[in-house]
C-alpha cells in the first residue's frame, strides 16, 4: 500500500514544522528570548542561592518534584503506546467509522495501521526523552550532593564554582530533554488530525505550533520572568 499525494504532503508538512520549531526554540536567534532560556537563567539563580544555604532540604524537595513529574509523563507515554497497539486490532472498525464521516474518504486497514504506527513512534520518542530527562535529574541530584557546604565553599571557592557549574548544566540539559518530550506529546495531539484526513493534519499542526509559540515567546509566564 502507498500513501497518496495529499497524505504524504500533509505528513511531510507535519514533520517539517516540528523540526523547524525545534530549531527555532532551541538553536535559532529567537531561542534566547524564549521561556525555556528564561527558565535556564532561573536554574542558574537557583544553584547560586543553593550554594549560600546551610541546609538544602528545599533543593532536594525541588529535585524530587522534577523527577516525579518526569516519571509521570514517561509512564503516560508507555500507556499511550499500549493503547495504540490495542487499536491495531480495531483497525477495520476505525476504517469503517471513517466511511461515515462526511468530510473524509474511507480508509483501508493498511493506512489506519500506518497512522497508528506513526503515533506509536511519536510516543516512543517522547518516552525516550522523558526517560533520559529523568536520568539526568537523578544525576543532577548526585551533583547537588557533591557541591561543598557553605563553610567548605568559602575555603575553596573555585572548586565550589566548578561543582556548581556542573550541576547547573546538567539541570539545564534535563530540562531541555523534558521540554522535548513534552513537545512531542503536543505534536502527537496534532498528529491525531491525520485520522480525519490530510487537511485536518495540516490545520491541527498549525494550531498546535501557534499555541506553543505563543506560550514560548508571548505568554504571561515569560513576561513574569523578565527583569
Automatic annotation (TrEMBL):
Top-level taxon of the source organism: Bacteria
Spans through the membrane: 6-24, 72-89, 110-128, 185-213
Pfam families assigned: DUF599 (PF04654)
Alphabetical UniProt keywords: Membrane, Transmembrane, Transmembrane helix
Entry keyword annotation includes Amino-acid biosynthesis: no
Organism of origin: Aurantimonas manganoxydans
Protein name, entry field: DUF599 domain-containing protein
Amino acid at each position: 500500500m502507498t500513501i497518496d499525494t495529499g497524505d504524504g504532503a500533509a505528513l511531510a508538512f507535519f514533520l517539517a514544522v516540528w523540526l523547524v520549531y525545534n530549531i527555532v526554540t532551541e538553536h535559532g536567534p529567537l531561542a534566547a528570548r524564549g521561556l525555556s532560556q528564561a527558565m535556564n537563567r532561573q536554574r542558574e539563580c537557583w544553584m547560586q542561592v543553593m550554594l549560600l544555604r546551610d541546609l538544602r532540604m528545599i533543593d532536594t524537595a525541588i529535585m524530587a518534584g522534577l523527577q516525579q513529574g518526569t516519571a509521570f509523563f514517561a509512564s503516560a507515554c508507555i500507556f499511550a503506546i499500549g493503547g495504540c497497539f490495542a487499536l491495531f486490532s480495531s483497525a477495520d472498525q476505525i476504517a469503517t467509522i471513517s466511511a461515515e464521516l462526511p468530510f473524509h474518504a474511507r480508509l483501508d486497514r493498511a493506512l489506519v495501521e500506518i497512522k497508528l504506527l506513526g503515533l506509536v513512534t511519536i510516543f516512543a520518542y517522547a518516552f525516550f526523552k522523558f526517560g533520559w530527562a529523568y536520568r539526568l535529574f537523578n544525576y543532577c541530584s548526585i551533583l547537588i550532593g557533591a557541591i561543598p557546604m557553605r563553610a567548605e565553599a568559602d575555603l575553596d571557592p573555585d572548586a565550589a564554582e566548578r561543582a556548581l557549574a556542573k550541576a547547573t548544566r546538567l539541570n539545564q540539559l534535563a530540562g531541555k530533554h523534558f521540554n522535548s518530550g513534552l513537545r512531542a506529546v503536543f505534536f502527537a495531539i496534532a498528529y491525531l488530525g491525520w485520522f480525519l484526513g490530510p487537511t485536518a493534519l495540516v490545520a491541527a499542526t498549525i494550531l498546535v505550533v501557534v499555541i506553543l509559540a505563543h506560550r514560548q515567546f508571548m505568554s504571561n509566564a515569560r513576561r513574569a520572568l523578565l527583569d
